[in-house]
Automatic annotation (TrEMBL):
Belongs to the class-IV pyridoxal-phosphate-dependent aminotransferase family. The lineage of its organism: Eukaryota, Fungi, Dikarya, Basidiomycota, Agaricomycotina. GO terms for molecular function: branched-chain-amino-acid transaminase activity. Keywords: Amino-acid biosynthesis, Aminotransferase, Branched-chain amino acid biosynthesis, Pyridoxal phosphate, Transferase. It holds the Pfam family Aminotran_4. One of its GO terms (biological process) is branched-chain amino acid biosynthetic process. Its cofactor is pyridoxal 5'-phosphate. This is Branched-chain-amino-acid aminotransferase.
Length: 242
């Protein structure tokens, strides 16, 4: 559940109301904003909803059909079931917002404040992909989470990131490419290991081209398996394909 805490702006800080005819869309901001924090949930990816308040016939401020906004969120929740999206209750703090800021609602036809509901992820860690997500598809949203970590790694002298997933830190990809590791066994053979296609990594064309050629190589064994930290008993040489 969300906890609603209302902090009113000082009356001396309240802005003067502009003339409705002089308003420009998106340029005038009201005195208050609403921040809803749900610490135990994950809201991904960034999503926006637009709400508009009006003055009703009884003189009270009201939101225009907020259930339609929540229904649109619900459709997205059905499309991305691995995410925890807010329910209709998230619209309630915005009703409080317009009750407080009702003076900003022009009581005339053709004018209305514009409330932008923005839902963002607040997790501190960086996650490129997750089970049931979109990591197995060529989507731009799969690359954006890695931009900042890659810049930080570059500043520390590293050329790439190794993406680990879950408490057991299993390897999924390296940077934005598929990951392979070669293991030289005691009998002189070479094992080629790559993470399985479980939806968290992309089925790259180079990956698909590499596997059949390696399977035809004498004394080379190929396997797709969940891969964790390298075992110290065998030397391993990791490489990746762009």
């Amino acid at each position: 559940p969300c906890k609603l805490v209302i902090t009113l702006a000082n009356l001396k800080e309240w802005k003067p109301l502009p003339e409705s005819e002089n308003l420009v869309f998106g340029e005038t901001q009201t005195d208050h904003v609403t921040l809803v924090i749900r610490p135990n949930g994950v809201w991904l990816p960034k999503h926006i909803e637009d709400m508009k308040p009006y003055i009703g016939h009884n003189g009270e401020a009201r939101l225009l059909r907020p259930e339609r906004n929540m229904a649109r969120l619900a459709r997205l929740r059905n499309a991305l079931p691995y995410l925890k999206w807010p329910s209709l209750s998230i619209a309630m703090p915005f009703q409080s917002l317009i009750d407080i800021g009702a003076r900003w609602i022009p009581n005339k036809a053709g004018y209305s404040p514009y409330i932008r509901l923005t839902i963002v992820d607040t997790r501190p860690e960086c996650v490129r992909a997750w089970p049931g997500g979109t990591g197995g598809h060529k989507l731009s949203l799969n690359y954006a989470p890695g931009f900042l970590p890659q810049r930080l790694a570059t500043k520390q002298g590293y050329s790439q990131l190794l993406w680990l997933l879950g408490d057991d830190e299993r390897i999924t990809e390296v940077g934005v490419t598929n990951f392979f590791v070669t293991v030289q066994t005691g009998n002189g053979e070479v094992d080629l290991i790559t993470p399985p296609l479980d939806g968290t990594n992309l089925p790259g064309k180079t990956r698909q081209s590499t596997l059949p050629s390696q399977m035809r190589t004498p004394r080379a064994n190929f396997s797709c398996q969940v891969f964790h930290e390298p075992r110290k008993s065998h030397p391993r040489a990791p490489f990746h394909h762009a």
